[in-house]
């Protein structure tokens, strides 16, 4: 067995339960980050779109 397993065995910890919790946390972290980036992208696109509309409205006035 490796050092990692010996460490967990010494402290009477279940390595596989720890690994599953770690993977669930990583999945949660990655999912949250992905949704945040998508939301931020949509928000910034809308700001640029609306600023563009206001800009063109000012330019088109003759």
From TrEMBL:
<keyword id="KW-0472">Membrane</keyword>
<feature type="transmembrane region" description="Helical">
    <location>
        <begin position="34"/>
        <end position="56"/>
    </location>
</feature>
<dbReference type="InterPro" id="IPR029208">
    <property type="entry name" value="COX14"/>
</dbReference>
<keyword id="KW-0812">Transmembrane</keyword>
<dbReference type="Pfam" id="PF14880">
    <property type="entry name" value="COX14"/>
</dbReference>
<protein>
    <submittedName>
        <fullName>Uncharacterized protein</fullName>
    </submittedName>
</protein>
<dbReference type="GO" id="GO:0016020">
    <property type="term" value="C:membrane"/>
</dbReference>
<keyword id="KW-1133">Transmembrane helix</keyword>
């Amino acid at each position: 067995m490796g050092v990692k397993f010996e460490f967990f065995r010494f402290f009477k910890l279940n390595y596989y339960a720890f690994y599953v919790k770690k993977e669930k946390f990583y999945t949660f972290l990655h999912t949250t980050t992905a949704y945040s980036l998508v939301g931020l992208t949509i928000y910034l696109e809308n700001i640029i779109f609306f600023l563009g509309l206001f800009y063109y409205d000012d330019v088109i006035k003759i």
